[in-house]
Amino acid sequence: MDEADRPTTEHRRPEGLDDATVEALGKLSEALEVVEDARGHLYGFHRLTGMADLALGEAVDLLRDAGHAELAEQVSTELVGRNVIEGRWTFQVVEEYDDGYYATFKRLEALARDDLAGGRRHLFEAEMKEDRRTHGRRHHEAVPHDGSEQSP
Fold this sequence. Notes:
mainly alpha
């Protein structure tokens, strides 16, 4: 195989690394990607909830201005600024998630890669790419030829 048409060293399996370990690291990476997506949704929940609370404050003002002071007061005291979970606003939920589950997941995934594959990422996917691409064909190159990746 033409050396220029091979993945970079960082995307090649280290010598002695077996298929089962590459598959396990691939599954661990896949799980982390799902956690990253979940984290994005959590941040979306945080932002949307905050936006809703601000809009709710405006609604309270509009209800008052429209002569519905009693309803405005009820909405204001029962809902504006309310905790979304006992004792917590969404920023506190995000912080606990980030500092606990997410940080632990990231740490252990990196530990597994470092210990088992010399820190190399996406080996399973890199090997899948090698299996699936048409070697020697334009748009099927192993790496970009625009200098954005190191040569093999």
